[in-house]
Amino acid sequence: MTEAPWLVVGLGNPGTRYAGNRHNVGAMVVEELARQAGAGLRQHKAGRAWAAEVRLGTAPGGLPGPRAVLARPMTYMNVSGGPVSGLASFYKTPVERVVVVHDELDIEPGQVRLKRGGGEGGHNGLRSISQSLGSKDYLRVRLGIGRPPGRQDPADWVLSDFPAKDRVETELLVGDGADAVIDLTQLGLEATQQRFHAR
């Protein structure tokens, strides 16, 4: 029996208004992975998501990397769970092969951290996914955006764009997030944590 594909979900809000927001950095990573694979995200028949079936990176020996479905929900962030559980059901992907890529206030800007399970830390997208999957034991690739300066409301911070002056840093964060997803699917969680958490 062929192993189910990985399901890699990048969180964000739909539409051009939100495209450059800090909250959309997970979606940016999935779009970068699709670009690297030469694939375009298209509306999926299983539900409210844009998706593409790809091979992630190159495996040892120059072989194609593991099968994966790249996806970003067409819904707003706080109701991401329905599209994620719909795709997981369609592809028969178990929760341990679901990877959610998302922004994280409590991680320094530019840092990438990985974990399996745990709490949602007030992240409504994660809360929705946990409820819809009936489990918190999916993998998370957490992209640091830091806390807002002064007394700025965190909600305003995540829904504001990355500043133009930080364009290079933003591109590096997206690139590192894409690399972390590929390593995670090929090397496993611990090896990928060691690589990225040591930075």
Task: Provide a descriptive summary of the structure in words.
Helix 1 (25-37) crosses helix 5 (167-187). Strands 2-3-4-1-5-7-6 form a seven-stranded mixed β-sheet, with helices on both faces. It contains six helices and seven strands; from the N terminus they run βαβββαββαβααα. By secondary structure, the protein is an alpha/beta fold. The protein has helices at 25-37, 81-91, 124-133, 154-158, 167-187, 189-197; strands spanning 6-10, 42-43, 49-55, 67-73, 98-104, 112-116, 139-144. It is globular, with a radius of gyration of 16 Å. A hairpin with a 5-residue loop joins strand 2 (42-43) and strand 3 (49-55). The protein is 35% helix and 20% strand. It has a single domain (6-197), classed as 3-Layer(aba) Sandwich (Rossmann fold), CATH 3.40.50.1470. The mean pLDDT is 94. 41% of the residues are buried.
